[in-house]
Amino acid sequence: MVGGKESGTVSTHHAARWWIIGVIVVVLGVAGWWYLAISTPEASELPAETPESVDDADATATISIPTKTTPSLIRHGQDVGASNGVLTLEDVVLTDENLNNLEVITLPDGQYRMFFHQFNAIKSALSSDGQHFTLEPGTRLTGQMPATIKLADGRYRMYFNADGNLKSAISSDGFTFTVEEGIRLAKGGQYDRQAILHPSIVTLPDGTYRLYYDGEAPSGQDDLGWRILSAHSSDGLTWTKDEGLRFPATAGEGEGNGDEDATDFDMIFSAHAEQAGNETILSVTAQTYPLGESGIWQATSQDGLNFTLADQPLLARDAQYGDGNVGAQGGPPGMPQDPFVLTLADQTQRLFYWINDAGTFSASLE
Length: 366
Fold this sequence. Notes:
Radius of gyration: 29 Å
Structural class: mainly beta
Helix content: 10-25%
Distance between the termini: 109 Å
CATH topology: Tachylectin-2, Chain A
């Protein structure tokens, strides 16, 4: 009986002690949670991460340029007729977003023929004014991403992507094409090991040719690995790849100037080339940080290899889309891309461009 009483007393004391310890633990936990809640900044207060610059031209580099001094034109759905003195926005040309990578040639009768691909079929449309096009029946070729030049003998040669390589076809009328034997340019290099994409070709003053294209060589899951490369040819059939990358390029006088407000380029791709005497002009698609500077930029070169970027985009991404869904298929929503510049019979120019989820649009160049 005595033993049992003493045992019960000890158990009661132990229970009380553990109850007090439990209360203390709960109090400390609540206090810690309260401290973290008031000391941790909201997401909007956190400093934004800025990509590091990469100086190595052989890396996936960023390019810093001076902050733009005048507003770039921005594509809105209601902005037909808007102008910034350089571009005047026109209406939609093709409403089907699956009609991609267009180009336009001028025909002997003064009409214009547009080529584009729809999935794996290259198709065409015809226009009398270079702005309003009517789809033509049938398929011109099986392939993607056409780039057509007019030869000295009046025929047309179309280059196109097939299985990641560049092939060609010949035509006497710009409508019916016959595929030429062989591969014009094969994938498999350091920067184009996976594919050759988005070709654009110019005839140089000496009668030779230069091809600009995107080499695809992804370095990771989130890296498309698109970099603008080039090749040269004396006859348009046998091509030799030029060394190195066409970008990064000097960005006006601002590259490496330490301007924290300057634009950083994450990727430059899909170039359309024009030759004006000894000067090569590239209209390119640039995805930038911040995304508000993304869109169509222009760059110039005196040797066709080393390019200087303008200090602002020619046509910028609409900021209403914000920074969300950056990795969407086809690029960030609202970003103008895949430019093509057509010189009309009166020597005025028209810019065609594609927008993800919207279609193909045009703008007149002053």
